[in-house]
Amino acid sequence: RDDRLHHPALIGFINRNYACDEQGRHFFQNGPQRVYAGLDYTPWVLRLLDGALAAQTGETVVADEALLDEEGNMLIAWSGKVGLIDDRDLAAMLGWLQHADGTPADDSAVLRAIDGGETNLSLELYGRRIPVASIRRKEVAARFGFDPTPLPN
To answer: Which of 2, 118, 133, 135 has the most crowded Cβ, counting Cβ within 10 A?
Structure first.
């Protein structure tokens, strides 16, 4: 508990068995045992890997929307899921924000989006323009239908 995993085979095993039930509870299935995952924020953490955006499970992500929260975090929504951009990739992703005319987003526009203001920003991500919206951290779980503190039945 609360320890970082380093063993590649164990990480791979957990990633292959990470899932979500119909109640929005994410878990790791180990044979007959189901271990529910308490989430610090989102069910997924996303990284820039080998020219693609990928979840911690290795799933390639094709973004539908980018979201900026009041803490300056960037989230990516895809196929009804949401993931937090890993802080090691956040600066690069923020650098790909653009105004509607395709010019790089200036700091004031990014700060307006972080503060919850209207935004006409988009994210240029692997040749696609992804719309950017503001969101409040407390709204994320309800909007995307997951339970950040699941308990077994």
So the answer is: 135
Q: Which residues pair with 53 in a beta bridge?
A: 48, 61
Query: What backbone torsions phi and psi does residue 112 show, to the nearest 5 degrees?
Result: -60, -45
Tell me how far CA of residue 51 lies from CA of 17, 47, 48, 123, in angstroms.
25, 10, 7, 15
Taking alpha carbons only, the member of 60, 57, 65, 68 closest to residue 26 is 57
The pLDDT value given to residue 90:
96
DSSP letter string over 108-152?
HHHHHHHTT-----EEEETTEEEEEEE--HHHHHHHHT--SS---
Give mean pLDDT in consecutive 10-residue pieces for the chain, a chain of 153 residues.
Answer: 76 88 93 92 95 92 96 97 97 94 93 86 94 96 96 77
Q: How many CA atoms lie within 13 A of 141 on its CB side?
A: 15
Q: Could you count the other beta carbons within 10 Å of the beta carbon of residue 112?
A: 18
Residue length, the chain?
Answer: 153
Sign of CA pseudo-dihedral 59, 65, 69, 72: positive
